[in-house]
Amino acid sequence: MKPFNTTVKNTLLAAALVVGSANLTGCGYNSMQAQDEQINASWSEVVNQYQRRADLIPNLVKVVERYAQHEQATLTQVTQARSQATTINVSADVLNDPAAFQRYQQAQDQLGSALSRLMAVSERYPDLKADKQFQELQAQLEGTENRITVARGRYIQDVQTYNTTVRQFPTNVTAKVFGMHTRPNFTVANEAQISTAPTVDFGNNNTNTANAGGQPVQNNGNTANAGGQPVNNSATATAKP
């Protein structure tokens, strides 16, 4: 039989553990830990798909080089972009360093742009487009790009959930106590461009515009009617009495 004091101590310890667990759950600590693990898993999938894309590039470059030897500048850009993207640290530590995360994203975006230019080269070489190995690599690359998009989307959602928990009250108090901070997230590569309103120019009185029928109309005297035919604006309408 256990001594009375030992039994009491064990009972008090169990009660303390239950109360402590309830407090951690109520303050959001457990939720943040679970969300943090989900972010790490999502990040691993992003890195995995980016690595898959990088592994396809050397063979793709070799095939293109056989048919498009005059495109050395484009081939070199792809090779250099791949080298830069694969040398950046992609461990989970990147998620705690916004600057490092941004460098990684920029490197991957540059590689994606270089790949787009390389694929555009194939349009000028029919024999290259007909090559079976090129077609297979192209199909694998397209599939990988789709998986990258899906993986990035999941990561973005998981980070949004976690960052919301870290920033909102009262869980933000728990986050500060345990040193848990918001995680960096992916951004739109051409954010500055798409956030700028396009310039719309309707021309002036000395330029031509199209009427409803698609034909140009001189603005210095003619306008288009509903049927798309030019109407001479130089005539003055006379009101009927």
Automatic annotation (TrEMBL):
Any matching Pfam family: LemA
Biased composition (Low complexity): 203-228
Membrane topology: Single-pass membrane protein
Protein name: LemA protein
Domain of life: Bacteria
Record's subcellular location: Membrane
Compositionally skewed regions (Polar residues) per UniProt: 230-241
InterPro entries registered for this protein in UniProt: LemA-like_dom_sf, MamQ_LemA
Stretch forming the signal peptide: 1-24
Keyword vocabulary terms for this entry: Membrane, Signal, Transmembrane, Transmembrane helix
Keyword DNA-binding annotated: no
Protein family (similarity comment): Belongs to the LemA family.
Annotated region (Disordered), positions in chain: 199-241
